Amino acid sequence: MSKKYLVTGAAGFIGFHLVQVLLKRGDIVVGLDNINDYYDVNLKYARLKETGIERNDIVENKPVRSKTNPNYSFIKCGLEDKTVVDQLFETENFTHVCNLAAQAGVRYSLENPHRYVESNVFGFMNILEGSRHHNIKNLVFASTSSVYGLNARMPYSESHSTEHPITLYAASKKANEVMAHSYSHLFGIPITGLRFFTVYGPWGRPDMAFFKFTNSIFKGESIDVYNYGKMIRDFTYIDDIVDGIVRCLDQPATSNQDWTKSDVPDPATSSAPYRIYNIGNATPVTLTDYIDIIEDTIGIKAKRNLMPIQPGDVVATQADVTAIMTERGYNPKTPVKEGIENFINWYRVYYNI
Q1: Closest residue by Cα to residue 103 from 93, 114, 92
Q2: 83 Ramachandran zone, left/alpha/beta (phi>0; psi -120 to 50)
Q3: Closest Cα partner for 116 from 164, 171, 40?
Q4: Of 169, 200, 237, 347, which one is the catalytic site residue?
Q5: pLDDT one-digit tens code per residue, 204-245
Q6: In DSSP terms, which residues pair with 4 in a beta bridge?
Q7: What distance in Å separates the CA atoms of residue 47 and residue 40, rounded to the nearest whole number?
Q8: Both ends of the chain: CA-CA distance in Å?
């Protein structure tokens, strides 16, 4: 049976790269994004242009066909718009859904909490309902490493508790995981949730540290280095992230036949066709070392403004990716130095530096 994919967040960092991979292998794809102004919309429109979607052709709530790929169309729409999302499921006959659309950002959730509930909770509800009523064969959705919250056990394992998130962003993603399980259990929908670990690379998000550092260094401005550079992050290159997503789209979750309703049931699997995976590089580095690599690649020393840790931040993240490697063949291949070099090369071309 032929496959047709709905990719939400298609103008976003990860969604844009996923759409390109699916189109390259010949899949039929419909992209959806509300193109909000959380960060520079010009970058979002530039990503869309790479897939043949021209800014001037985009009309709110109406699909537009790519000028370069007949298998791709795009619709500007918010996931919380139930009427339009329902109609899209009704008319497009999707077989697979990858939900990457969300209000992103950890610190931003301290300032605009309602936006996270509208997009990440209400919006995801519409995706679940669409999947329920239109026989979706596989639903994959983005979660986040932030759900681990106050958990200090390293590396983070999907079997660990995620009951103590420390930001509303993380709480909204935890809600997605719980909502997804209920729909998988009630309606038999194969659903996989992916906990991403600090994604970086070409066409990345300007609100993220790697992009901010690069921008400030080129401009000769100081950079804010939180926790005095002692933060540890499992930086994961975009190509590795997308490889993991595609593997999960191609291999729907199945029920765990050994899962039991014991005193400590496995939170990452279920008797329903439901699975949670970490997607990381599994080789964390300190923020100080990360900045050193950016400096060496650019050839300019940063002016570092050392600061204490910020509310909503955790000191360290590290992914245990054993499960997705064993069950889906995931294998992160991009070392941080190579990934940063690729990003800086893109940055120079995009900004004509």
Answers
A1: 114
A2: alpha
A3: 171
A4: 169
A5: 999 999 999 999 999 999 999 999 999 999 999 999 999 999
A6: 28
A7: 12
A8: 47
> What are 257-270's pLDDT values in tens digits?
888 766 668 899 99
Q: Which of 60, 138, 68, 50 is nearest to 99 (CA)?
A: 138
3-state secondary structure of 25: coil
pTM assigned to the model = 0.96
Strand 285-286 with 232-233, pairing: antiparallel
- By three-state DSSP, how is residue 83 classified? helix
Residue in 130, 137, 129 with CA at minimum distance from that of residue 89: 130
- Cβ 46 vs Cβ 69: under 8 Å: no
Which residue matches tokens 């530096």?
353
Establish whether 350 is a catalytic residue. no
How many Cβ atoms sit within 10 Å of the Cβ of residue 326? 9
- Fill in the amino acid letter for 74: F
Tokens of 251: 């291999």
Report the amino acid identity of residue 99.
N
Q: Is 319 helix (H, G, I), strand (E, B) or coil?
A: strand
Task: Give percent helix, percent strand, percent coil of the chain, each to the nearest 5.
Answer: 40, 20, 40
> What pLDDT digit, counting tens, does each position of 107-146 carry?
787 788 899 999 999 999 999 999 999 999 999 999 999 9
What DSSP designation does 18 have?
Answer: H
Gyration radius of the chain over CA positions: 20
CA angle, 270 as apex, 265 and 272 as ends, to 5°? 150
